[in-house]
Amino acid sequence: MESKLIIDEKQATALFDAYCSSETNQGHYYVDFVPITFMNEDFAELADYLAINCKPDFAKKIIFIAFTILCYYDSAVFLADNDYLEKYTNKDLRHTDLESIAKEIRDKVIKNRMGLYIFFQTEDKDHISLMSIEDEYSTHFFGLSGEAQKMIEQLVTHQGLFFKKVKNID
């Protein structure tokens, strides 16, 4: 799978920092197991159950979404700094085999390890969006709009998950 998107570690870090520190949540979405958002005493019990029983299934679904993005868009893949993966840190993993990338995604979800970041160029060739896969169930999309937002939402829904917009906190 050939990609025309070429970004280095410094550019990836700058994009990630810009998206995460943005004052606005425009184009910021996350993937969830349930269609509603709630925080009460019952949520802790559900979270414990999901952590024990559903992580492998969630990881498979996130891998499907990530691989579709990798195959459809020009993209680059970076890992967060990890001592145990020094050979991969600060390098674009886009041209490694899919099984290696799948293993990294599984590790992020199941073993609660730091992130894997997929930067991808959407229909607007001057714009780069981000899929952030971090520990457990923390999968976010940044900078989505237009056709890319619609396609990602369809991918998430196809996997039986829910695509939710991050709301501004006033």
SSE order and pairing:
Elements: H1 9-20, E1 29-32, H2 41-53, H3 55-72, E2 74-79, H4 98-110, E3 116-121, E4 128-133, E5 139-142, H5 146-158, E6 162-165
Helix pairs in contact: 3-4
C-alpha Rg (nearest Å): 16 Å
> How do the strands of the widest beta sheet line up side by side?
2-3-4-5-1-6
Measured by DSSP, the beta-strand proportion falls in 15-25%
- The number of helical runs is 5
Largest sheet: 6 strands, antiparallel
Which class do the helix and strand fractions yield?
alpha+beta
Low-pLDDT stretches: 83-88
If you average the pLDDT, what whole number results?
A: 82
Tell me the span between the first and last alpha carbons.
43 Å
| Total count of domains | 1
Outline:
globular
